[in-house]
């Protein structure tokens, strides 16, 4: 906006001002700027292009309506600020990339764009999108912060057997929305620049595939060898005629054998649920399938063998060694069984008579789940005792076991006091007598050897 003042009487034509554009620099066939004749507000009559002209000088005249008419001029300097009026253009219209199947996290190619807007501004920085061909999210494209290139990366492996070629369409736009001058008749926002990309997938040897990868089976423990468990189903997508070799790689108890040609699995040992390698009644077997490709590839399959329990274990005393303070009357015995319910506790107990006609100094008291109370029926001296027991599970399977019990003098924490060494309880005289006896025996031995030697010399 330009503004002029006239000191003449404002109620007369001498002070009525009319504005007009005298010239603009640089010159053009069509005036770019205009001015409102009464308000002095400058207007835009054409479209500006920062890439062609960055600065304008416009001369504006202010003229009164008096007689004679008087006027003066002013120069308006206009500096243009760049905006996004030029879309990014992808230089090449076709790209070709190559990748091996099963490869990922590698750069396939870099897409180059040209943009006439001011570098390193949102009007210049490109933003790339994969508009077609990425339905399975195999690819990712990002903008290089310096070169403005689009870097296409594969993030999820491709499969040659599914399709040896993949087609993509990628578009490029700016971070800032594209601006189109509204003064240009028929002008609309052009579509984003796009490029077609062909990805060639190179075939490599694929590993054999187990179907299913994990076989879940249920068997009862204790069955004899020779039981057919299953047969692995394996396919190789590279060639129907490829040879597959099966190899057992994990079977810690060596319970099965796997036919190297057919993948048939047969037991060669008796299944035992109580094995250390059985976890929560499940025994795991792992098998490889190895093809004859170049290079050879390996697939992995497994068997999860759930073993049903049978009553094949006898109950036993859990802690076979215990102590009983001499002033106490009872001790608790805990029993266990490696079998599951209903082949284990609660147990019944019976004292076994190992002393002939001698009356046992023990009796059985209160039973609680898998434990029982052992009672003294009379006062017993300190020492070690063996208490034989018979333990019977719910199904009548019994096991004979024994508790090794020490009756001792206890401290306040009800722990057995340490046994005093024999030497600590002897007087000085007793020790001297023992030492003297030892010397006497030594002298006798020397005398004997002396006599024997004398006889031999004779």
UniProtKB/TrEMBL annotation:
InterPro entries (alphabetical): Cadherin, Cadherin-like_dom, Cadherin-like_sf, Cadherin_CS
Name this protein carries in UniProt: Cadherin domain-containing protein
Subcellular location field: Cell membrane
GO cellular component: adherens junction; catenin complex
Annotated Cadherin domain residues: 2-90, 91-210, 211-317, 333-423
Coiled-coil region(s): none
Signal peptide: none
SUPFAM superfamilies with a match to the protein in the record: Cadherin-like (SSF49313)
Gene3D superfamilies xrefs: Cadherins
Source domain of life: Eukaryota
GO biological process: adherens junction organization; calcium-dependent cell-cell adhesion via plasma membrane cell adhesion molecules; cell migration; cell morphogenesis; cell-cell adhesion mediated by cadherin; cell-cell junction assembly; homophilic cell adhesion via plasma membrane adhesion molecules
Protein's UniProt keywords contain Cell membrane: yes
Primary localization class, coarse: membrane
Keywords of this entry: Calcium, Cell adhesion, Cell membrane, Glycoprotein, Membrane, Metal-binding, Repeat, Signal, Transmembrane, Transmembrane helix
Bilayer-crossing regions: 429-457
Recorded GO MF terms: beta-catenin binding; cadherin binding; calcium ion binding
């Amino acid at each position: 906006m330009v503004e002029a003042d006239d000191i003449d009487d404002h109620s007369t034509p001498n002070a009525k001002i009319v504005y007009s554009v005298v010239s603009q620099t640089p010159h053009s066939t069509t005036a770019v700027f205009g001015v409102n004749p009464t308000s002095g507000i400058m207007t835009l009559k054409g479209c500006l292009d920062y890439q062609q002209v960055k600065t304008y000088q416009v001369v504006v005249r202010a003229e009164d309506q008096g007689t004679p008419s008087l006027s003066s001029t002013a120069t308006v300097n206009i500096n243009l600020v760049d905006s996004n009026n030029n879309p990014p253009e992808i230089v090449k219209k076709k790209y070709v990339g190559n990748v091996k199947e099963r490869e990922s996290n590698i750069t396939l190619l870099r897409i180059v764009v040209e943009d006439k807007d001011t570098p390193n501004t949102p009007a210049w920085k490109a933003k790339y999108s994969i508009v077609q061909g990425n339905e399975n999210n195999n690819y990712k494209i990002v903008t290089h912060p310096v070169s403005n290139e689009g870097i296409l990366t594969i993030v999820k492996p491709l499969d040659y057997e599914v399709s040896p070629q993949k087609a993509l369409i990628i578009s490029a736009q700016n971070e800032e929305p594209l601006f189109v001058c509204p003064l240009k008749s028929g002008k609309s926002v052009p579509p984003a620049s796009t490029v077609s990309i062909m990805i060639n997938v190179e075939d490599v040897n694929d590993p054999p595939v187990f179907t299913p990868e994990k076989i879940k089976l249920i068997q009862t423990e204790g069955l004899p060898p020779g039981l057919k468990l299953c047969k692995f189903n394996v396919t190789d997508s590279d060639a129907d005629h490829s040879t597959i070799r099966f190899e057992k790689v994990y079977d810690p108890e060596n319970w099965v054998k796997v036919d190297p040609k057919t993948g048939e699995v047969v037991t060669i040992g008796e299944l035992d649920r109580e094995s250390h390698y059985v976890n929560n009644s499940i025994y795991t077997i792992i098998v490889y399938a190895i093809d004859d490709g170049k290079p050879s590839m390996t697939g992995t399959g497994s068997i999860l063998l759930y073993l049903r329990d049978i009553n094949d274990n006898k109950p036993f005393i859990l802690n076979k060694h215990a102590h009983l303070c001499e002033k106490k009357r009872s001790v608790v015995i805990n029993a266990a069984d490696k079998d599951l319910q209903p082949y284990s506790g609660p147990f019944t107990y019976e004292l076994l008579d190992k002393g002939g006609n001698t009356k046992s100094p023990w009796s059985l008291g209160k039973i609680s789940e898998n434990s029982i109370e052992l009672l003294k029926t009379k006062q017993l001296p300190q020492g070690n005792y063996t208490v034989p027991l018979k333990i019977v599970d719910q199904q009548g399977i019994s096991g004979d076991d024994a508790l090794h019990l020490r009756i001792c003098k206890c401290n306040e924490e009800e722990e057995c006091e340490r046994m005093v060494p024999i030497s600590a309880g002897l007087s000085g005289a007793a020790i001297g007598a023992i030492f003297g006896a030892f010397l006497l025996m030594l002298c006798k031995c020397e005398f004997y050897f002396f006599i024997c030697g004398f006889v031999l010399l004779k």
